[in-house]
Design brief:
Blueprint (H helix, E strand, L loop, with lengths): L9 E6 L3 E6 L8 E5 L3 E3 L6 H13 L3 H8 L10 H12 L1 E2 L7 E3 L7 E2 L5 E6 L4 E6 L10 E2 L8 H12 L12 H30 L2 H18 L4 H16 L3 H19 L4 H11 L26 H8 L40 E6 L3 E6 L8 E5 L3 E4 L4 H13 L3 H8 L10 H9 L1 E2 L6 E4 L7 E2 L5 E6 L4 E6 L10 E2 L7 H12 L12 H21 L2 H6 L1 H18 L6 H16 L3 H19 L4 H11 L26 H8 L5
Helix pairs in contact: 1-3, 5-6, 6-7, 7-8, 8-9, 15-17, 17-18, 18-19, 19-20
Length: about 675
């Protein structure tokens, strides 16, 4: 534990109504680093259960010096305890501060943890990853004798929400200046904070599309936020982030002049709030030096300027109008400039619907679907097995080691696309809004280029197809044609939505949780809204499907007990037919291929060819005859001995010509599945 200043600028003393706190012993100027402190106890986040966490904290307390232990034990504890381990945990839960480089981790600092809360805090806490210390900086000038305060909450909560959270989490009622304002002023403060928060939601919803398709509107939202922060008298990390967002938007649209100014302002605020050696201050200082180094520079050339072309000699208010691209108010009777691109953009610059080739409209329309956004709806009857759509990806991408690298990689790919293709990408849903908008769109929408591929593709039309747990279509990557295909796996009526499955067919509780976390929606398909008894029956079938599939995939069992493995295939067929109403699609194709492999591994060419025939027909329905997998199974149908496992055993040895003739359907099925043997 140490302060960054040799001459102490604060002391620990009693604060009326708060216990002990840190108080300035001389005037502290805005931006001063008040303290820089190493932790004495670290909390490893959610990786440990309560008992393990108690043990870890207890062991760390035992290693502290006597003065450190006394200081630790004198900290406030709002949690009841029965023994020392529970007492230590309670102190940590009451006082720990985040080590923000890894948000689920925290730590105890002997001095920083003594700093009390105020909703209009005069200091900013932060974990500095570069120096591995907790730092506190003055957000404004702090007078001698004034208490140093930080905020324990998000600063954008209204007074009622703040008071409730502080009482529930920390056991006190806040009496700071902001919470003690007269009702009218308090309501006005709440209005500003709530509007900043509302604008955050609007900006997140717009995502990358807002940056590149409607940048002027999005910039106006950042402008509103900055004005609200100024009215509120806050220049904290939220204020800095609004300036960062403005810089990124300007640079993405090639406006280096404004981008540089926004980045300079952001870097200045980061330096004040987090310190000049913080990652954010260094990063945005470098961006201000050369804004063209930002990874999405030049995504659009709409506002192209050079970095040194900011106007000189303007009045401050006129400069701000230029910087934020504010429209001058029109006087009554003044005509509108019809050539003004901001007011009347050219047709080529208007936000587009997704561009879809006319050949695709043969089977479907892209249109709003209630409670789902856009989707594909059949405009004609579509027969089972019909190829509805074949589409090449806008681009493909693989897994990246970090989100920032992924964002840079995707930005580079987007620059290679046409404006139309960029708009198609940006109009896709993003379930992960935030500072990596392109990565969020890819994570939400990319489809794997093959069953086990680590490479995914993003498609302007196919990515609009919504999910159903009982889909009527199947998507598949055709590696020869380098495109994704969509086939009807049952008859689809005109006016019916075309759906695929985003899930692998798990029971309702796990699949709904997966769909919500990965794609941000609660599924209300025909399966998920079944009456409770019917849904339980469906879940039981899906669990049985998983168990049977796992048993069939056991290679040792296939060789030792092939009769049992083949019987499981037959059982699985019945369950799939029941659960998917005769339209299990690729699951049926996979099942028949498993039955083929079991048969050919034991030399049974007759049954193997029959199963391959069925697998082939099922694949044609799901993937088309030109699918590489369909073609591979077709060759095995014609020559089952070409499979690598042929001859592993001669237990069931037959020739291809041994398929019986003249049997009725029931008799053939009995023979095929070796029933009664």
């Amino acid at each position: 534990m140490s302060s960054s200043t040799s001459d102490r600028i604060y002391c620990l003393q009693s604060v009326p109504g708060k216990g002990e706190g840190l108080v300035a012993v001389k005037k502290i100027t805005k931006g001063t680093r008040i303290l820089s402190e190493e932790p004495i106890i670290t909390i490893p986040g959610n990786k440990l259960n309560i008992k393990q966490l108690q043990i870890s904290i207890y062991q760390q307390v035992a290693t502290l010096s006597e003065p450190q232990q006394r200081a630790f034990l004198s900290m406030h504890n709002i949690h009841p305890y029965k023994d020392a381990a529970e007492q230590y945990l309670g102190i940590v839960r009451t006082n720990s501060l985040p080590t923000e480089a890894d948000e689920d981790k925290g730590a105890i600092f002997l001095e920083a943890c003594r700093i009390n809360h105020a909703c209009d805090n005069n200091a900013q806490k932060s974990w500095n990853e570069k120096i591995k210390r907790h730092t506190v900086h003055a957000l404004r000038d702090i007078d001698k004798g004034e208490e140093i305060t930080i905020t324990y909450l998000s600063p954008l909560k209204n007074r009622t929400a703040r008071q409730k959270a502080l009482q529930e989490r920390f056991g006190f009622t806040c009496l700071c200046h902001l919470c003690s304002l007269p009702p009218e002023q308090s309501q006005e403060s709440d209005r500003r904070l709530e509007e900043i928060h509302r604008l955050d939601g609007v900006i997140d919803q717009l995502g990358a599309e807002g940056v590149l398709v409607s940048p002027l509107r999005t910039l106006s939202y950042f402008d509103q936020q900055v004005r609200l922060y100024n009215e509120q008298g806050r220049e904290d990390v939220g204020f800095a982030q609004a300036l960062v967002n403005a810089a990124q938007l300007a640079i993405a649209n090639s406006d280096l002049a404004r981008g540089r100014i926004f980045a300079e302002r952001a870097a200045s605020v980061w330096k004040t709030t987090l310190g000049g050696d913080s990652t954010e201050a260094i990063k945005h200082g470098a961006l201000a030096q050369d804004p063209s180094k930002y990874e999405i520079y030049g995504m659009s050339m709409k506002w192209k300027t050079k970095a040194d072309k900011a106007p000189q000699g303007l009045e401050p208010s006129d400069f701000e109008d230029w910087l934020w691209r504010r429209e001058k108010s029109k006087q009554p009777g003044q005509t509108v400039d019809f050539r003004n691109q901001a007011t009347f953009p050219g047709f080529n610059d208007l936000p587009h619907e997704n561009h879809i080739g006319p050949e695709f409209y043969k089977f479907f329309n892209v249109q709003p679907v209630p409670d789902k956004g856009k989707g594909l709806v059949a405009c004609v009857n579509i027969d089972k097995g019909k190829r509805i759509l074949s589409e090449k990806p806008l681009f493909t991408t693989s897994n990246w080691p970090s989100m920032s690298l992924m964002e840079s990689g995707i930005a580079a790919k987007l620059k290679e696309l046409s404006k139309t293709e960029q708009r198609q990408f940006l109009s896709l849903h993003n379930n992960f809004p935030g500072k990596h908008p392109f990565s969020g769109i890819v994570k939400t929408n990319a489809l794997p280029c093959g069953p086990d591929s680590t490479i995914g593709g993003v498609y302007p039309t196919i990515c609009l197809i919504n999910h159903s747990c009982l889909p009527n279509a199947h998507n598949n990557w055709n590696s020869d044609a380098k495109c994704e295909t969509i086939h009807a796996i049952r008859f689809i009526k005109a006016g019916e939505e075309i759906t695929i499955s985003y899930d692998k067919g798990s029971p309702s509780s796990s699949r709904r949780a997966h769909l919500n976390s990965a794609f941000g929606f609660d599924c209300n398909c025909s399966v998920c809204i079944l009456p409770p008894a019917d849904l339980q029956a469906s879940d039981a079938r899906r669990r049985q499907i998983q168990l049977l599939d796992e048993a069939i995939g056991d290679p040792e069992r296939v060789m030792k007990s092939p009769e049992e493995s083949l019987a499981d295939c037959h059982s699985l067929l019945q369950v799939l037919e029941d659960e998917y109403k005769g339209n299990a699609g690729v699951l049926i194709a996979k099942l028949y291929y498993d039955a083929f492999q079991i048969s050919i591994a034991h030399g049974d060419q007759a049954r193997a060819s029959a199963f391959a025939e069925r697998a082939f027909k099922s694949r044609v329905i799901c993937e088309g005859e030109d699918s590489p997998e369909t073609q591979r199974i077709k060759s095995l149908k014609e020559n089952p001995t070409g499979h690598r496992n042929f001859g592993a055993s001669n237990r069931w040895k037959t020739s291809k010509r041994s398929i019986p003739k003249g049997l009725d359907n029931s008799g053939f099925e009995t023979w095929l599945w070796r029933e009664g043997r």
